[in-house]
Amino acid sequence: MEARGSRRRQLPVLLLWVNGLMMLGFAGACQQTELCNESLMLEKLPTCGKSFEEMMKKVDSKKWCNLTEFIMYYDNFTQCTEREANNASCFWPNPLAEGFITGIHKQFFSNCTSEKVHWEDPPDEILITLILIPVMLTCAMITLVVWCSKRSDIL
Asked: What is the mean pLDDT of residues 128-148?
């Protein structure tokens, strides 16, 4: 019985000790972080752009708006920019990398505007039919339920 009480008193001490060890570990991890070397990242990102440009030369410029034609090239470009940002100890995406990627988009995809679909209402005959069918079906179902509930001998 005394051993159980002794363990209960030791538990908070043990928890404080474990918490202290964890906090020391987190503090050490925070001290080891490096600052982002933006100039190195900006120096390396153009190599990703040049590689993407070389790959896009294989695609007909008329097909540049069709993502399925160059999705692998774009994926390689994205991975390259992420890798170079990480090598420079920068998070990704960051404003500088986004600016570079936006420049690439302007270079290759500036003519790719989405065509706006102009929606029109259907003709009145079709619209009235589409409204009346559910209303009539609802009325018919209500009538059927009321009629069956009054005729309990059928059920």
From this structure: 95
